[in-house]
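Reader question, answered in our methods column.
A reader sent in the components of a multi-part assembly and asked whether the whole thing could be modeled at once rather than chain by chain. We filled in our standard form and ran it. Here is what they sent:
COMPLEX SIZE: two components
ENTRIES:
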Amino acid sequence: MANFAIMGFGTVGSGVASVLRMNGDAIAERLGEPLSLKYILDVRDLSATEYAGIAVKDFSVLENDPELDVVVESIGGAKVALEFTRRALMAGKHVVTSNKELVASHGRELLAIAKEKNVNYLFEASVGGGIPVLRPLFQCLAGNQIEEIVGILNGTTNYILTRMIRGGVPFDEALKEAQAKGYAEQNPAADVEGLDASRKICILSDLAWGREVLPERISVQGISGLNLRDVETASKAGYQVKLLGRAVKLEDGRHCAYVAPHLVREDCPVAGVDGVFNAIMIRGNAVGDVMFYGRGAGDLPTASAVMGDVIDALQHREKRRNLGWGEGGDLADTGELSMCWYLRGGFAVPQGCREIGGGAVLTGPLSTKGAKALAKKLGAETILPVLP
Amino acid sequence: MANFAIMGFGTVGSGVASVLRMNGDAIAERLGEPLSLKYILDVRDLSATEYAGIAVKDFSVLENDPELDVVVESIGGAKVALEFTRRALMAGKHVVTSNKELVASHGRELLAIAKEKNVNYLFEASVGGGIPVLRPLFQCLAGNQIEEIVGILNGTTNYILTRMIRGGVPFDEALKEAQAKGYAEQNPAADVEGLDASRKICILSDLAWGREVLPERISVQGISGLNLRDVETASKAGYQVKLLGRAVKLEDGRHCAYVAPHLVREDCPVAGVDGVFNAIMIRGNAVGDVMFYGRGAGDLPTASAVMGDVIDALQHREKRRNLGWGEGGDLADTGELSMCWYLRGGFAVPQGCREIGGGAVLTGPLSTKGAKALAKKLGAETILPVLP
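And here is the structure of the entire assembly that came back:
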């Protein structure tokens, strides 16, 4: 018998309980032993629910139970979640989480504690919801040197952009729709301004190159500044506007990560990823491009990834997964990246650009700094990178 | 120091050696120890190559070396490869392979030997080339009950179909092009008649449901019977013709697997997968649909998957991966599957069908048997399932 607990019984936590109810027999068969949900830790009163018998409010109950193998942390944020994760790992429990904020900000410390205590700290659900992407990256692609990662990492903004592109719906209205459908929070800033995507591209970058990249150190641009003219102009020229997290290894070995809306050519597989779906493309020096696609959020998809990690932790009870990253290295500035750019505005199209709709696309690459200077000189209203 | 050997120094075997040369330092860092290629076993004379010092012709050298940890089997076929794999596992070596024929036909036996000897038999490269798909299926999605798997599993036929669809090139000519580009063998039957895809869908099915499905037991239809009118008619009606391997769990718990050309709606992500690329879509009862996309063949992509498995085997030296499947269960007959169908021919479109180009698509599902009977009655020239 293997025992686990859920801390934080919101969308993800209750999803994990549902997956156990749906698939408990199949999971037991895979594990070779039954998996039992022993505790649910939550500040809410669960006494009127079917979980009354296992609801607890005191974390030390989990901490001090020698029969508890795995703790699922679905509290969110980086305060209580950080404290309880630290303590659970110190107490020799494996911890599984969907908490991207915590992993992006404190993953290095928590993985170091896990290493010291010979337990697992796993977080497949923190990037791409239910889509398997972190384990494929650090395990299946372990024979590669990773050259680039680019992804639609936030379903809310992708839904909004899809409505703008396919439905001609203005940003504000598309955001309201997303809120009505439950895809966007009442305070949508973390999604719309790119913060959620920045946490995810940092975690991918940490794993790809073994060096911590903190979200507050990278350039992040969201989609609130986009208007219908941008997506329409791009569309007419054969591009889709997508909010991408992107991490690139430069020729000198340094890497950089950033989040920005990009123009994506319509023949690129990422361009066809619509609505709340996520897609992550990874380029390795042996495998070339591989892409992972699916639902990037939602209770059951996210719980699927959490449960996969719980099973993995239990199958590695005695042996920790070799997972972790070191202190931040010399991160390249996004300004050093050379890309093609899209500039919108009523200026005369200069040399080295081709006209598209009410703007221009550079025909050759230019550094971010150079592109910004050019945009200023021309008086362009919008400037967006074009995904190479 | 970890030691491995390569058996069979063809496309995949030499690709593995290349990946070690390209990425040896990064692999050593991941492993925590250097990885050394100790032997290459091949019937060819390698004395004039850089591998002269490690070339051997006698398998027992590998078998009897107590310092050899992992053997890569890239011989192909199911004769010598079967014997050497059995003996390597019996000798306590981990074995990694890209050999789909061997895994599909003898995987159950070989995994049982691996279990007995507490070593790993890993075969990520046998399906989808470099695309991580088997490990995501059996590990990341372990919390799911798998409902369906559908994939473009053969790059050669997808290249041919893409040329037929996008270029209007007839089948024979597209095949010749594929051969000229090195995508198709001189004897292309295994690809074109669906045999290669059938091995891969069987391996996916084995892993998804834990029961052996042998390629010779499933219905397999290739693309040699398709002509330009089929793909053109489908295209005009908003469908792409794709050769798919498909495995489905029925409501009564049985499952079935088959290979056939399908009509795929253009808004389905699989429809946009062109050329030699592969894509595999997996539906789990928690995660929904996830898709994996990339190059399904080629020396370096396949070697990437092999190397990922070599690293995994070395990280699990003491503990075998919990991998395997039992004897074949009660496999459902494809004839029991209800689907919509496309029928081509100059018949009067019957009730329950809508006309498309020179044929008709059923508006509701019908069993394979029923559809075949209808096709016969109408005198239809072609009958193809429509992917639901």
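What stands out: The CA atoms of residues 124 and 135 of chain B lie 7 Å apart. Chain B touches chain A through 55 residues (CB under 8 Å).
Send us your own complexes using the same form.
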